[in-house]
């Protein structure tokens, strides 16, 4: 039996990049997957098509998790489609850097609304339905200890996420719901392409600092998430796994 057989997973921000790889990995391990997207319907549909063509179960559901009603609607869609929810992966995030001179209220709020409030709202909605053995996995970033220049607001969101995750691990533990964090290092995704990092001196710097000597790929992160979602990780909660090729 596949290690996630019979489980239902919701992956936010799963239309591309790390989220898409996570959705496919969870489906490969037997979970029925809700592929959430905010704006890229075509991307989410492509992920669903890849899963179903491989024999898995998946649906795409639109929703901006920074809006309470839409976060609630996402979880309700999962329940309506599959009858339950066992795993929530909070992957939705805005990846955007700005030098301190360029930080604006809009930049701050855009990042914190999705990267922090979105996690709270999606977890709040899911927690009503998660039972014993449920797993919440939050995608943070190694940037909280690498401390890259121009990443003040982004790193701030991930630092907040780490603290929130620790609190929720303790808060939900009496219900036997686990909460863990995965903190990727530099990963080649659509987001890092769009931000101009891929192919830049910044990327070269990240790789130079990485003991394993290469950039990360979305599948490198997806496998760690699939482990945390499974019963193999039943004794892990409140952990933050840095998946960075050895960057500390």
Walkthrough of the structure:
This protein is of the alpha/beta class and 248 residues long. It has one domain (8-189, 218-234): 3-Layer(aba) Sandwich (Rossmann fold), CATH 3.40.50. It has helices spanning 17-28, 41-53, 68-82, 105-127, 143-146, 152-172, 190-194, 201-209, 218-229, and strands at 8-11, 32-37, 57-62, 87-90, 135-139, 178-184, 240-243. It has a 7-stranded parallel β-sheet with strand order 3-2-1-4-5-6-7, sandwiched between helices.
Write the topology of this structure:
Blueprint: E1 8-11, H1 17-28, E2 32-37, H2 41-53, E3 57-62, H3 68-82, E4 87-90, H4 105-127, E5 135-139, H5 143-146, H6 152-172, E6 178-184, H7 190-194, H8 201-209, H9 218-229, E7 240-243
Individual helix count: 9
Instruction: Tell me roughly what share of residues is in helical segments.
Output: 40-55%
Q: What is the correct CATH architecture? A: 3-Layer(aba) Sandwich
Q: Which structural class matches the secondary elements?
A: alpha/beta
CATH classification, class level: Alpha Beta
Low-pLDDT runs: none
Mean pLDDT, all residues: 96
- Gyration radius from CA atoms, angstroms: 17 Å
* Domain count: 1
Strand content: 5-15%
The ordered string of helix (H) and strand (E) elements is EHEHEHEHEHHEHHHE
CATH topology-level fold name: Rossmann fold
The CATH fourth-level homologous superfamily:
NAD(P)-binding Rossmann-like Domain
Distance between the termini: 36 Å
Instruction: Specify the oligomeric state.
Output: single chain
The profile of the biggest β sheet is: 7 strands, parallel
Total strand segments: 7
**Overall body shape:** globular
| Main β-sheet, spatial strand arrangement | 3-2-1-4-5-6-7
């Amino acid at each position: 039996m596949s290690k996630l057989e019979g489980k239902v997973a919701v992956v936010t921000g799963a239309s591309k990049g790390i989220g898409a790889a996570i959705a496919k990995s969870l489906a490969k391990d037997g979970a029925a997957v809700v592929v959430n997207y905010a704006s890229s319907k075509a991307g989410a549909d492509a992920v669903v098509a890849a899963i179903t063509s491989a024999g898995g179960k998946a649906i795409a559901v639109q929703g901006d998790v920074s809006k309470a009603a839409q976060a609630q609607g996402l979880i309700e869609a999962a329940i309506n489609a599959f009858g339950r929810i066992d795993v929530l992966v909070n992957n939705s995030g805005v990846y955007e850097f700005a030098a301190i001179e360029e930080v604006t209220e809009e930049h701050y709020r855009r990042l914190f609304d999705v990267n922090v409030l979105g996690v709270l709202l999606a977890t709040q909605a899911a927690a009503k339905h998660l039972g014993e053995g449920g797993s919440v996995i939050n995608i943070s970033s190694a940037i909280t200890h690498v401390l890259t220049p121009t990443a003040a607001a982004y790193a701030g969101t991930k630092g907040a996420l780490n603290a929130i995750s620790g609190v929720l691990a303790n808060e939900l533990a009496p219900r036997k719901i686990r909460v863990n964090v995965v903190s990727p290092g530099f990963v080649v995704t659509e987001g890092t392409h769009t931000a101009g990092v891929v192919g830049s001196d910044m990327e070269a710097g990240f790789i130079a600092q990485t003991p394993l000597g290469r950039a990360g790929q979305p599948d490198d992160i997806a496998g760690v998430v699939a482990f945390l979602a499974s019963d193999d990780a039943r004794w892990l909660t409140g952990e933050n796994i840095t998946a960075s090729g050895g960057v500390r």
